[in-house]
Amino acid sequence: MITRINLVLLILLVACALSVVTSQHRARKTFMELVRQQDIADAHEVEFDRLRLEQRTWAMHSRIEKVARINLKMQAPEATRIRILNFPSRP
Amino acid sequence: MNYSARNPALSLKLEGWRSRLLLVLVCLGFVALAARAAYLQGIRHDFLQQKGEARYSRVIELPANRGIVFDRHGEALAISTPMESVWASPPDAILSGTQLGKLAKILRVEKSEISERLGDKARGFVYLKRQVSPDLAAAVTALNLPGVFLRREYKRYYPAGEVMAHVLGFTGIDDTGQEGLEFAYQDSLAGLPGAKRVIKDRAGHIVEDVESIRLPQDGKPLTLSIDSKIQYLAYRELRDAVKANRAKAGSIVVLDVRTGEVVALASLPDYNPNNRAGVKPAQTRNRPVVDMFEPGSTLKPFTIAAALEAGKITPSTIISTAPGSLKIGGRTIHDAHPQGAITVAQVIQKSSNVGSAKIALSLPAEAMWDMFNDVGFGALPHSGLPGESTGKLRPFKTWRPIEQATMSYGHGISVSLLQLARAYVAFASGGEIRPITMLKSEAAIEGERIISERTARAITDMLEMAVQPGGTAPKAQVSGYRVAGKTGTAHKQIGGRYAPDVYVSSFVGFAPVSAPRFVIAVMIDEPSAGQYYGGTVAAPVFSKVMGDALRSQGVVPDAPLKEWSDPMFSAPEVKEEA
Question: Cα B442 to chain center, whole Å?
Fold first, then answer.
């Protein structure tokens, strides 16, 4: 009787031990996947910041002014050529 | 039965205690082993497990991203981008000559410098090169060198460059703020680094990620009250004026009258925050906030306001400024262009020193001090920028009459340009002064009334006269908008004496007069191209920035539009007293 209980307990013990190992393995695998995805998200964020920086650099006021004045030969209108229209103020 | 009887060799009679002793010793040995095992497995278990893990498991830091700084319209002004720093562990980094050569070529560092750094075997960590671009870092990784690693660091970029340099400041190589708002808001911008546990092999490569200990918390973004467009206009006009007048330095402040927000703030000489090699402290100084100067005549309106509030005078009271000089306690105050009998309004319009001194002396010192104190002179403006100057306003009990007289026109008192601009908000807003801020305000900030609306209106009328033909600053006029403002031309103190030919030229004003939107204060330090009057040097900067700023905000004009060739703009300005 005692031997049989011991046998059952032994099987249970081995099963538990194995499941601990598997779940730990799975946890690690999931974590690795998480890290990989985080790295991808990180790379996207880096790319976004870089693009944002590039956009700001292209849109620098001094550059726009230079392009408008020199390349496109634009100029600010004379004060008398400006007409200001009054619209009823929006709600 | 008796062995010893048969075999003489065994006949030796051993004493019984010897075998027993041996047994006991062997048993004791086992007990010791069991005890040691129990000690190691039981009591010391955690410690040893930890030591074992430490051989291969490492906690590595995950850097947090520094918050982005935006302007009021959401344009990014400061962004962090990741860079890799190449470092090595000298005991592990055993490189062949060709490997060394390749590494040196990629990093653009002398080969000898790398081998010298790697030669210091006592150290476990040396930088080979900090902050290299991700492309170069990938090339280093591709070499697959033992004991050479990368470390992620962030470099801060400022797309606006010089234009925004003094407002934003900059960060050091460790990504901590050193100047400007980067320094002031270091804690909220920085974020918290995270950590994770990994398994590393002997060469230090990460074999496996084990667990996350703490996620990195990115820094909070910061949204400023600065309008990049107005900031650029202000910077450009100031730069041009400093260049044209061959001035030593210059500052400009643009405040929103309705909210007390700083819309633009620029300082010259400047520097490029993206490349600070060889930058001198004179370039990084945020002059409108840090420097104090004797404001000169721009202070007269506050003297007049104090006298109006005290009921001593009205705008039409006649003041006799003849004969153009006034003797007080052994010293004489001069008007270079004696005006005779003029009204209080004309004292501002013509900027008469004698007139303002006479008005000041009709007041108790305390009333003048109260006015200066109420508008914020002698106290920190609390803009949030580091290194603010309080200026210098001495207690009224120590004032002698001559000092009270000179202070009425801005000598013997020092203010920062930011304080001066903020003080003018009192006139522009109809008598209220607001706390100023560098951050975009969501809700309207409560103002504090310091002068009556009537006084503010009267001063505004006088300031409007000062920029019209017959005043000191017709060049401050803006086509399409009514403008009010005051010039200042002050001799600079050098070594405790007023230098005869070194000046500080300034102009402070606001527009449109019917519903003021911006206060702009301009200061040009030591103009040396011949012109030095505030009305000639500083007022044109004000006019251009104000005009462009109002038009860019779509502010409805309250005056007819005029050509620049209109005589209104070319009227000769009245030379004010320095």
Answer: 22
Share of chain A above pLDDT 70, in %: 92
B21, two tokens: 């002793």
pTM: 0.81
Shortest Cα–Cα distance, B43 to chain A (Å): 23
Asked whether residue A91 carries a pLDDT value surpassing 60, the answer given is no
Q: Kindly list the catalytic residues of B.
A: 297
With CB atoms and an 8 Å threshold, state whether B160 touches A84.
no
B187 contacts A7 by C-beta, under 8 angstroms: no
Closest CA to B549 of B291, B228, B165, B158: B228
Reduced to 3 states, what is the DSSP secondary structure of residue B196? Answer: strand
- Cβ distance B556 to A84 less than 8 Å, yes or no, reads yes
Task: Write down the H helix ranges in B39-120.
Answer: 45-54, 97-107, 111-119
The answer to whether residue A56 neighbours chain B at the CB level (below 8 Å) is yes
- B4 pLDDT above the threshold of 60: no
Judged by CB atoms closer than 8 Å, whether chains meet at A61 and B163 is answered as yes
> What would the pLDDT profile of B55-107 be if each residue is shown by its tens digit?
777 788 888 888 889 999 988 899 888 888 888 887 777 777 788 888 888 88
Of B576, B37, B515, B552, the C-alpha closest to B353 is B576
* Closest of B68, B240, B264, B263 to residue B159, by C-alpha: B68
Checking ipTM against 0.85, whether it exceeds it is no
